[in-house]
Automatic annotation (TrEMBL):
One Gene Ontology term, aspect cellular component: membrane protein complex
InterPro entries: AAA+_ATPase, ABC_transporter-like_ATP-bd, ABC_transporter-like_CS, ABC_transpr_LolD-like, MacB-like_ATP-bd, P-loop_NTPase
Species of the source: Aeropyrum pernix (strain ATCC 700893 / DSM 11879 / JCM 9820 / NBRC 100138 / K1)
Gene3D superfamilies xref list: P-loop containing nucleotide triphosphate hydrolases (3.40.50.300)
Residue ranges that the Swiss-Prot or TrEMBL entry lists as coiled coil: 250-277
PANTHER family registered for this protein in UniProt: ABC TRANSPORTER ABCH.1, IMPORT ATP-BINDING PROTEIN
Name of the protein described by the UniProt record: ABC transporter domain-containing protein
Source taxon at top rank: Archaea
Record's keyword terms, sorted: ATP-binding, Coiled coil, Nucleotide-binding, Transport
Signal peptide: none
């Protein structure tokens, strides 16, 4: 294993602390988080709502700055960079797939891809078209985002993130509100980028079905990295022993379920108040039920019972 920022490590996070100050309140979002991601690897960061996943991703992508600790991405020290150097890093070396996919509604699919290329001074229509084909949107280059389905919009957001051929791709809940089949398609595109094109992918998810597709899973809870494990087995997990790994994964998954049940109760209340229709309620029921089953299946697959 190489040292910090070594050739084989695409992302190195060391002792990162992030504190938000909001209306006189201090919120500790990350508590000395350290992890690394190898080139060509897909790392899923899994944790309940508010555990610090987006904060960690933003810090890796140079969108946000840590209060303490170091972050080195593709050999570049992001945590201490600023100005033009940081702007170019964000434009050319990291592709960010945002939770709300950040597409520009007044630009066509192809134009959305050409924009970051133009900002980097290398707009290339042919490459734009090739990227659209790669994400399964060949022939839809003239569509506006609102003329695409949710899954297609998300795939377009991936193509936009790939526009400048960045070595690192970060994706915040890329499968968020999508059904599992559509979500799986997005993850497969990201896996292909990593495993066939040597890109490094860091994504966040609260869904064990998505985490299971990654090469490794980092488990985060209340701003603390509980450990990193291989999705096929808990044994060999780093950062904690086997028993602790089981406990951490189980605790995080139970909290993810609690979040889902809470969303369901909120949907029921809103339905009672007449704010949402029966379709929205049924959809939430279906999602929570599927997530509950996925969590149970994942726990039993990992040999965690009870
Ligand atoms: N700009 C901000 N100002 C103040 N607090 C913030 C800010 N951004 C995030 N936080 C807080 O930091 C903590 C971590 O938030 P973060 O968005 O990283 O969590 P998350 O795991 O991505 O959650 P989710 O799954 O709901 O997106 C939360 O307590 C959140 O309320």
């Amino acid at each position: 294993m190489a040292g910090i920022g070594g050739e084989d490590l695409a992302v190195v996070v060391e002792g990162v602390v992030k504190i938000y100050e909001s209306r006189g309140e201090r919120i500790v979002a990350l508590r000395e988080v350290s992890l690394s991601v190898a080139r060509g690897e897909v790392l899923a960061i899994m944790g309940p709502s508010g555990s610090g996943k987006t904060t960690l991703l933003n810090i890796i992508a140079g969108v946000d700055r840590p209060n303490a600790g170091r972050v080195i991405v593709d050999g570049f020290e992001v945590s201490s960079a600023g100005g033009e150097e940081l702007r170019r890093f964000r434009l050319e070396r990291v592709g960010y797939v945002f939770q709300q996919h950040n597409l520009i509604p007044t630009l066509t699919a192809l134009e959305n891809i050409l924009l970051p290329m133009a900002l980097a001074g290398k707009a290339n229509r042919l490459r734009g078209q090739e990227l659209l084909r790669r994400v399964g949107l060949g022939g839809k280059e003239r569509r506006y985002p609102e003329e695409l389905s949710g899954g297609e919009q998300q795939r377009l957001a991936v193509a936009v993130a790939l526009a400048n051929d960045p070595p690192i791709i970060v994706a915040d809940e890329p499968t968020g509100e999508l059904d599992i089949a559509t979500g799986e398609r997005i993850v497969r595109i990201l896996l292909e980028e990593a495993h066939s094109r040597g890109k490094t992918v860091v994504l966040t998810t609260h869904d064990p079905r998505v985490a299971r597709m990654a090469d490794r899973v980092a488990v985060i809870e209340d701003g603390r990295l509980r450990g990193v494990y291989s999705p096929s087995r808990i044994a060999g997990a780093t950062g904690f022993g086997e028993v602790e790994a089981e406990k951490a994964v189980e605790a995080v998954m139970r909290r993810i379920l609690d979040d889902a049940e809470r969303r369901l109760r909120e949907a029921e209340d809103r339905f009672r108040r007449g704010e949402v229709g029966i379709d929205a309620l049924v959809e939430t029921y279906t999602r929570v039920k599927a997530l509950r089953e996925a969590v149970r299946e994942e726990l039993s697959r990992l040999g965690i019972t009870g």
